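hey all, quick one before standup. I had two proteins in the batch that finished overnight and I want to keep them in one place so we stop losing track of which output belongs to which input. First protein below, input sequence then structure tokens straight from the run.
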Amino acid sequence: MAKFEMDTEFVRKLAQILHETGLGEVELAEGDKRIRVARPAVTVAAAPMTPAAAAPAAAGAAAAPAAGGNDLGKHPGAVKSPMVGTAYLSPEPGKPHFVAVGDKVTAGQTLLIIEAMKTFNPIKAPKAGTVTQILVDNARPVEFGEPLMIVE
């Protein structure tokens, strides 16, 4: 059996890709060699939504584009979704939100999490500043590139 040599620099580069893109894992294969790098999953239990609770959330989502339009995505402080998934503003139901409007945040601080394919990915502040707007509702689906918050 041939000895498998680990290229630790390559593993570090893969880990950096995970960090930069917000992906939960990456796997590569070449011939009979295979490498998988994954971030630890954050477990969040989502409370089931009742139809009555879904209606106000839908109304809030419809009102947000009218209030700010598509220009919020061009705002220099916009924190955009790096993936398609479901946004959660708190670590688990019944717990306080990660941040609120007016909170001062540091670069790298978790603002919210996005669940994609049963993996919970923390979305971190790209810079230090103040949260001036939260543009998504809790437990709402988000699209790639959609503005989530404004940090100024």
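OK second protein, same deal, sequence then tokens:
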Amino acid sequence: MVKPTVPISFGEFKFSVDEIEEFLRGAPPDERFQKPFPPKIYRLKSGEPIIVRPATKDEGPAMLQTLKQLIDSKYDKDFYHLVAVRTYSEILAWMQNRLKDGYVIVATDRDGELMGIVNHRYFNEDVCISLHTIVFKRAERLGIFLYAAKVEHAFDVVGVNEWWATFESPFGFRMGFRLQHTTKPWPQVQHELGGARVYYITREQWNKSVKPYLTSVGLMGERPVPEDVLKKTIPLKPTSKLEIEF
């Protein structure tokens, strides 16, 4: 307790929780960064369609229910435990308005069962920050397909100039290597996820080399998604069975 150096005409003041909430939440969503990601389809070798589409906050509980299963030390292999914990906190913060300009994309099977999550947030009109990529069914490069989808949202839909990522597992680093990320000086420039190295892609890199490479190997998917197919993915269902190695 520190007393003011001059007399004050009142001893205390009160706020309603509604007044306080305005100061606690992230800034109101900037519509520049909430441009909807156009849904698309990724086909497995079997021909089975995986639908990739934007998530809504009311679908958060299904995501949290799935992620919660991985918050267990038995999933320490491949850093699933760490990535699941961090993704859980980010999805929760996004749902409860404690994350500035976040965006979440999900992958589902044809019946709406959750297969993977990617999320990112916009620092400003120039920089988008990758947060996490996690899949619950290892299925023919689904992780890299999902990662590419959020990069596509940042560059092609919103129009930022740089994509900043960091990688917490060898799987993530291998993906970043394949997609030609380069490195900012470190520790001068740090990623917000723990101060790790920033691996980045510029819009020019995306257009000239990364996106053409993804297209050539079939990792940009197909559009449009038929309306009846898209409707079957709603409501989002939690993953019924994790199919990952541990």
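Flagging for whoever picks this up: The helical segments are 17-24, 60-68, 80-95, 142-158, 170-178, 203-216, 227-231. The beta strands are 40-43, 49-54, 102-108, 114-122, 127-135, 162-165, 182-183, 199-202.
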